Amino acid sequence: MLSTLRRLANLTLVEQTLLLQLIALSLGLGVVLTTEALPRLTSLLSRNASFPRLSQDHLFHARCTMARLVTLIDLATALSHRDGRCLPRSLLLFPLLSARRESVKLCLGISKNTATLEGHAWGERGGIVLGDRRSFTTRYALILRLST
Length: 148
Fold this sequence. Notes:
The chain has 148 residues and is α+β, with helices and mostly antiparallel strands. It has one domain. Helices cover 52% and strands 17% of the residues. The protein has 7 helices and 4 strands. It has a 4-stranded antiparallel sheet. A hairpin with a 7-residue loop joins strand 1 and strand 2. The protein is globular.
């Protein structure tokens, strides 16, 4: 908790504004995930990525580097979701990177460990895992990869 507070204290005003927007989007995604099937949701996110308001500067995501945007999305989902935040985190990456005209893939996998059934979601850009370590995602067998 203390490290989260330190991270929040070191944000610029633009990053604080973007973080608030990302928290609101993350909470909205949490609600939508309870009512919509994932393929329909990703289709909707992909179509709306070209929506002009998403790519405008008032969302501030275009002003951030890729690494900083991933960090802010991770922080937003940590504040808005207690458990199982990998899917909302990956779903937030999907339209924001698409709006920046960057190719992104949403990946879903299940644990290779046959003793338990566990899932994970992550984003990829150009074969590079975003917001996770490659060593962590290799624990999962890829079952679905959605592109923008």
